[in-house]
Write a structure and sequence with these properties.
Blueprint (H helix, E strand, L loop, with lengths): L1 E5 L6 H10 L3 E6 L11 E5 L5 H8 L6 E4 L5 H11 L6 E4 L13 E2 L11 H20 L3 E6 L1 E3 L15 H8 L4 E4 L5 E2 L1 E3 H11 L8 E5 L5 E2 H12 L5 E4 L1 H6 L6 H8 L4 E2 L2 H6 L9 H14 L8 H20 L2
Parallel strand pairs: 1-2, 1-4, 2-3, 4-5, 5-7, 6-15, 7-12, 8-11, 9-14
Antiparallel strand pairs: 10-13
């Protein structure tokens, strides 16, 4: 097939790009060219900032595709631009939405595609819902061939999956664990979470590409494995060969602390126990099965980051913030004794 990805080199999309290239499809990556190194196969590059719509339209002139995958659309205005660029130019348009848009707090912990999209805590999630509504309107009213995919917490070898981290990413938390410092885990760490390795996510996504039964449908793609946050952080410590010094702080307390905004990412997402029912995507992609367990995926990621200093971004501000939070919580505990 002839496939174009808007982006194509991010955490979710890189594994899909590599998989489809290996399968022999003709791939086009439309991006700014900053992360295309290391790719091989039948891949062509359209180097541009898609926000420069006039230039992008000229570069697309005369091209048509079996599928266009949108990985970097966050607000409806970006999807309106995409429709202007790709309406009538593709047989399928796959949009990456987000499972964080599902109802929070959930009325039931098992999530299906029929679970309502209601997240009053996170603007990011509400914008994803608005994007879905816009695209499904185009499907109903104009026949635009939309498929919507909702990932949950998908990760790759470059960043360890966490609940609480700073703007610099996961490394500072890994470093705290490695150095034997107390590490903040939201809540009591027993809520259930689902992390999905991008190589597993790519299997299901690839099965939806060019599948006519996927048009006009919504799917989430996640692992079937549910683990607690205590287990996730424990696997990181295990991979580092050290003991975890967990320090549990209520999610609402973290959200109320100044310095970082955890209302959306915790109250609106990670503090809620969720288990995903993937039967809908498996009905279309029967071979889809996640094989990278949370324990194995975290081990691989930790080893990769340790071996690649370019992904070890120190974040002294977040490190100091953790110490202040722990000190403040200890002070509150003493005050209530």
């Amino acid at each position: 097939m002839k496939i174009l990805f808007i982006g194509g080199t991010g955490t979710i999309s890189m594994a899909i790009t590599k998989r489809l290239a290996e399968e022999g499809h003709e791939l086009y990556l439309l991006n700014r060219g900053s992360r295309n190194e290391g790719l091989s196969g039948n891949i062509k590059y359209i180097t541009t900032d898609i926000n420069d719509e006039e230039k992008t339209a000229k570069l697309l002139d005369g091209l048509e595709f079996d599928c266009v995958g949108e990985f970097i659309g966050f607000v409806p205005q970006q999807l309106e631009r995409d429709y202007r660029l790709f309406g009538g130019r593709t047989k399928q348009f796959i949009y990456i939405s987000s499972a964080s848009a599902y109802q929070k707090p959930p009325k039931g912990y098992v999530i299906t595609e029929e679970t309502p999209l209601e997240n009053p805590y996170w603007e990011y999630s509400r914008n994803k819902k608005a994007c879905e509504e816009y695209l499904m309107g185009l499907y109903r009213d104009k026949g635009f061939p939309v498929t919507i995919v909702r990932p949950s917490h998908t990760y790759d070898e470059r960043s360890v999956p966490l609940g609480v981290h700073g703007d610099g990413g996961s490394w500072q938390v890994v470093k705290r664990i490695k150095e034997g410092k107390p590490v903040i885990i939201h809540g009591d760490g027993t809520s259930l979470w689902t992390i999905t390795h991008n190589s597993d996510f790519a299997k299901a996504y690839a099965g939806l590409v060019g599948n006519p039964k996927a048009i006009g449908e919504v799917f989430h793609i996640t692992s079937d494995e549910s683990v607690s946050w205590n287990e996730i952080y424990g696997y990181i410590a295990e991979a580092l060969g050290v003991q975890l010094k967990a320090y549990h702080v209520a999610s609402q307390t973290l959200a109320d602390m100044s310095g970082y905004d955890f209302v959306g990412s915790l109250i609106g997402d990670k503090s809620n126990s969720v288990v995903f029912d993937n039967s809908k995507v498996k009905a279309l992609v029967p071979d889809f099965k996640c094989t990278v367990t949370a324990r194995e995926g975290i081990r691989r990621t930790v080893e990769y980051v340790l071996a690649h200093p370019e992904y070890q971004h120190d974040d002294p501000e977040f490190d100091a913030w953790c110490d202040r939070v722990i000190e403040a919580v200890e002070g509150m505990k003493k005050a209530f004794k």
